[in-house]
User: Fold these one by one.
Assistant:
Number 1:
Amino acid sequence: MKRIFAFIICLIGVILPWRLRIIFAELLGWILQAIYFIFYSILKCIITNLKEKGRSE
Amino acid sequence: MVLYSGGVDSTCAAALLLQEFKRIHLITYKRFGIFCISNIERNVSLLRSKFGSKRIIRGIIDIDRFFKKISYENYFYYFKKYGFMMLSTCGLCKLSMHVRTIKYCIDNNISYVADGANKNSGTGHFPAQMPLIINEIRKLYKDNKIVYLTPVLDFDRISASEMDWIRKIGFENNNLNKKDKGEGDSKKTTRDELLRLNIFPESFTKGSKMDRQMQARCFQLILFNIFLYDYFLPVYGEEKYKKITLEFFREKITYCKSLARGSNSSRLTAVKDDLK
């Protein structure tokens, strides 16, 4: 599934003319930044809670 | 002359060259898709305050048309032959920078060029960091009577546990560092070297706010990463990737040589009028 998804993104990227490809990459970049930020926030929250629990025990 | 991105590796390369040369040209290339170029001035100021303003000649050059020409000329021929390798934007962008650098060196009578290429940085899959491609680039420079130096090529990578975000989530006491340390040949990182030279503050970490604010931003590597890590490597493997990358860039470098006008020399002394 991941490969098919990657293939579709690559296919779109490769057929776009150069400025549109850059804009497409920018769009993907901001989406991934958002995903990274959510992942980072959740991970930070989990680790903080685990540390607090470890201390209280 | 140093191809300068403002990052840790190219700043270290510039600092090392300033210890050997009287004066250096610190050149940054810009094009559509590279944003926040002004961030780079931060480390230029640090270098100037350490080594003196007169020793650093600063320049920003537009490579929009070089990049377009090198990436998109004969597009269907390359696409038919190499497929998604055409998404190797970072490699093609760096190649455009090297070609423009050759022209700059010839115009300014410069014989030595350096950049922050580091084979241990990242995962080592970026064409500009692959020793095989670096050798090809070196030959291109040599054809033009220029010496291409890579002063930080063998430096160690900055370990994962020294990364800012790992510290922020309180996960620095893990085993990531043990795996990373010593993977390079030199057992020291560009960050260590900049701290030793008192150019960067002790508090500097990779991925920190300071790190983000000293470099330009470019998201086109994301398309390349998706192509490479989610498609090409799982399907074809590492060896095939190295082989096709070398073949692709050899052909592109040959094309770059053909940009030179005149049959008596391979020097890029007269790049076609439309690229001037």
Number 2:
Amino acid sequence: MTTRESSLSRYGSSTRAAPVPIFYPARPPVDQVGVEERAASLAKRSLKKASKVAALRLAVRMMDLTTLEGKDTPGKVRALSRKAAAPLATDATLGFCAAICVYPNLVPVAKRALAGTTVKVASVATAFPSGQSPLDVKLADVRRAVELGADEIDMVIDRGAMLAGEYTRVFEEIAATKEACAGAHLKVILETGELGAYDVVRRASEIAIAAGADFIKTSTGKISPAATPAVTLVMLEAIRDTYVATGRRIGMKPAGGVRTAKQAIHYLVLVKETLGDAWLTPELFRFGASALLNDVLMQLEKERTGVYQAAEDFSKD
Amino acid sequence: MAKAYKMFVGGSFVRSESGRYVQVRGSPAESADPQVVNVPRGSRKDARDAVVAARAAADGWAARTAYNRGQILYRLAEVMESRAGELRASLVRAGVPTRDASREVDVAVDRAVYYAGFCDKFQALLASHNPVSGPHFGFSLVEPMGVVAVVAPARPALLGLVSAVLPVVAGGNVCVVVAGADDPRTAVLWCECLATSDVPGGVVNVLTGEAAEIAPHLAKHREVAALDAWSADRALLVALERDASGSVKRVRTHDETAASRIASDAGQGLGFIETFLETKTVWHPVGT
């Protein structure tokens, strides 16, 4: 065992009950054409009527309603929180979104607005979106977000380190962040649009999972391409292989670029076909989105009334 | 070479998502073309997609200066004139006598020039400075409504389409048009004029197929602000008005004789533009 590997194992085992292999042995490279074709073929499935409505209602409950802009105000976050807690005025049985996702400074606002509901508050941290800050700054960022009340932390990995092959550093930063989360749920953003190849995405997924991620997440939403079905499939397969090898269930969160109800259903089909029904729950699958919610609500209203809806009938976030 | 006729949605020529076609028979005199051609039979979902394309184009089209919209429609008139031979031949293929076809194309080009010129003039005719009792200005200004659905008259195929669509877009609206079922080939040819002029994609979307199948979905669609129905089918018009009531849509219907007057001066005018405009009145204190 090389020094690097032993270091990984040490960190790996300290954060979990059972040690997990960091790099799966003899994994063939990701088949780019195969992955893209499979992801595309699963988009051809057409859900209709009752099953479509069920899928869309599930998608609402899986949504991390997100606003991550420099111009975010307390007012906007309060409005978004109200929407997350009651997405559709005409249908109280619809439930609520899984979480709202904001910058750390706005966590207390969201927390207050969501008091008395079970909608979680997620905060980005670790020098989001670039992750290019010293580790102690990033960890302080995480601790403050947790102190401010965040239930979930969305961290970014250091893509520079990942691309430079400094896997140990990536691993150690994630493991240290997990520790700093002190019980808060950790979602690890790989920013797949910057990783270049599916093999790098797969490796980053494995590192994040081994280092203690509760969720792996595709993107910050600040880089294009963000979430794509193919990259999501690669990550889902990493989750599946982890489950087969260890029994541990990791969550998945595609974020950025998911704008339409049709896309959302496509992702649910990917999850169902790769991981099965057990993952079709907000505990293990989330959408990071803002515009998606209105499109899903429009489609739900279309199914209820039989009439195509107008965008202006739904509140702008 | 047999031509694939397609619908015009969002600036692209598309087949129906349903994969269906209607067969259109040419006149017996025609020899160069196949006797029967397939033209897409638009579906509910094509209408839905066309509304999405139109909505996406609406703000950009409305935000252009009226002068620029006029330039673009004038460019359309130029392209129609340069393709006059093709348009004439297409009308003849569908059974219009040669002399009538020539006249129809000429009037259609004139009509495009007419509405191009009107683009930056109707505001001055329709807006007003209202007398109010107090130290305020009261201005009434016209604004486009947004997405307008148009059920084009069956005949005249070209002039009817042009006369129904151009006042709507001259007013700054975007439209989803169900072309007349008699001669959809000429409608597709006119779309080629739109595609090669500077009309932005999505401003005019033309579906082919059966109005009775497509139009009710447009009438019910909440994103569609108004409906201009030139159908000769009374039962359909009544159904469309009922469907449109759910979203309190503005509906203009035309009686059966309207299409026969379309070639005359009665087929053009400020009223055709005004029907699809909203009036906004603003008050402003005097002296500040």
